[in-house]
Write a structure and sequence with these properties.
alpha/beta; Biosynthetic Threonine Deaminase, domain 3; 3 domains; 6-stranded mixed β-sheet; 20 helices; 21% strand
């Protein structure tokens, strides 16, 4: 029974290597959600993840003979770092089998702590099968990342700290789930000590092994597992963890990749720290819980479980965040193919910030533009924007929820110059990025030359960058650059650029 874990958790040896992490208030998000939102900061552990607790608690319970044989584990990274640090502290050899998809930052961290890394397979389950093979062949002791009572008890100390730190009202605790070790330990403790507090498990939509097991009332294997949140990319919930969880949790919520990305930004905005996808998963679930239940005035806590992510993933995370928060509308709009149409369309948007603007000349009657516009969170403002444009006579297609459009088409709008376009010159501009900057640029450019190509993307940088193709006769060419000089924007001609000649001209 889950009650059997209470003594295990109270007796757990974790503070030889782990710290008691703080519970931080997140005032910006709390105000937005109209609830008191708290974060349990497990990302502040020495290995930037809670996994250190369970790994050390398991190892400290091994006999000397077992320690002498060395330990082996399969891990997507965080358990690996916890085990490597624990092994180094105890003077034990540790071999870690990691999926080939593991972020390099986690691989390097394991090696830095003396662990031997073996890369095998694309998922945790494939790595786990290989690690168990090493146990049979070399006699090492397998330290499971989640499906072990001592590991679960070590992770359960997170729940013990939460109840010690939050002595006032606490309505619900949101816990990320991969194999279920953290959730099982936290749920077992909290539901025993304060049964009125809800414990909600949160999984990625594309790796929801606990949700599947709860629906079937038995453990089952997912046909495939998404790896964006690599720390929880598990195809089957643990046997022991499921035994505990089915009796203790109050529900399971799943979160999309975009919702996880939005939660990463929320954590950054309030704490100036960057959570890994699995680390922000619980907060993504908390936000969805508030939206679905319409609750206000409650105290809700999410466990920020880790901060081990590759820096280069931030580009993708940032790109998806605005969509995850529903703060960017992606629209296809038909405008007249005539001078001044761009400027008129920008005026139709009012004071809204344009995040993206893509166009390539197609025919002499209509122009199809791909535009991103900042909108208020929630979706209502987006609908209002579309309605407003349609009332002004524009044909609008809302593609915000179109996965192909947001992932691919936005980067492919363009193509070669149609035969009807003659004497095209390509220029690249840079101007100070501020509200209304794009409109100001178009106003200064005026209607003197026809625009046959236009690309703009606001990346939040100090300077906006625009690629523009202008149609100009040979006689007009000598007038263009003196005119552009008067605009006082930094520019360069790119008509001879090989990329333009290969793909756009």
């Amino acid at each position: 029974m889950p009650q059997s874990y209470i003594k295990r958790i109270l007796d757990a040896r974790v503070y030889d290597v782990a710290i008691e992490t703080p519970v931080d208030a997140v005032p910006l998000l709390s105000k937005r959600l109209k609830n008191t939102v708290l974060l349990k900061r497990e990302d502040l552990q020495p290995v930037f993840s809670f996994k250190l607790r369970g790994a050390y608690n398991k190892m400290i319970k091994l006999s000397q003979e077992e320690l002498d044989r060395g330990v082996v584990a399969a891990s997507a990274g965080n358990h690996a770092q916890g085990l490597a640090l624990s092994a180094m502290r105890l003077g034990v050899k540790a071999t870690i089998v990691m999926p080939k998809t593991t972020p390099q930052i986690k691989i390097n961290a394991v090696r830095a702590r003396g662990g031997k890394v073996v890369l095998h397979g694309d998922t945790y389950d494939e790595a786990s099968a290989f690690a168990k093979k090493l146990v049979e062949e070399k006699g090492m002791v397998y330290v499971h990342p989640y499906d072990d009572p001592d590991v679960i008890a070590g992770q359960g100390t997170v729940g013990m700290e939460i109840l010690r730190q939050v002595t006032g009202p606490l309505d619900a605790v949101f816990v990320p789930v991969g194999g279920g070790g953290l959730a099982a330990g936290v749920a077992a403790y909290i539901k025993y000590v304060r049964p009125e507090v809800k414990v909600i498990a949160v999984e990625p939509e594309d790796a929801a092994c606990l949700k599947l097991a709860m629906e079937k009332q038995r453990r089952a294997i997912l046909p495939e597992v998404g790896i964006f949140a690599d720390g929880v990319a598990v195809g089957q919930i643990g046997k022991e963890t499921f035994r505990v969880l089915r009796k203790t949790i109050d529900g399971v919520i799943t979160a999309t990749t975009d919702e996880i990305c939005a939660a990463i930004k929320d954590i950054f905005d309030d704490t100036r720290s960057i959570a890994e996808p699995a680390g922000a998963l619980a907060l993504a679930g908390l936000k969805k819980y508030v939206e679905e239940n319409g609750c206000e005035g409650q105290t809700l806590l999410a466990i920020d479980s880790g901060a081990n992510t590759n820096f280069d993933r931030l580009r993708y995370i940032s790109e998806r965040t605005e969509i995850g928060e529903q703060r960017e509308a992606i629209l296809s709009v038909t405008i007249p193919e005539k001078a001044g149409s761009f400027k008129k369309f920008c005026s139709a948007l009012g004071k809204r910030n344009i995040t993206e603007f893509n166009y390539r000349f197609s025919d002499q009657h209509d122009a199809q533009i791909f535009v991103g516009v900042a909108v208020a969170e929630g979706g209502a403002d987006r609908l209002e924007l579309v309605d407003s444009l349609e009332k002004q006579g524009y044909s609008v297609l809302d593609m915000t929820d179109n996965e192909m459009a947001t992932l691919h088409i936005r980067h492919m709008v363009g193509g070669h110059r149609p035969a009807v376009v003659k004497n095209e010159l390509l220029y690249r501009f840079q101007f100070p990025e501020r509200p209304g900057a794009l409109m100001n640029f178009l106003t200064k450019l005026g209607n003197r030359w026809n625009i046959s190509l236009f690309h703009y993307r606001n990346h939040g940088a100090a300077y906006g960058r625009v690629l523009v193709a202008l149609e100009a006769s040979k006689a007009e060419r000598k007038e263009i650059e003196p005119f552009l000089d008067k605009l006082a924007y930094r520019y360069s001609e790119e008509s001879d650029n090989e990329a333009y000649n290969l793909f756009l001209s």
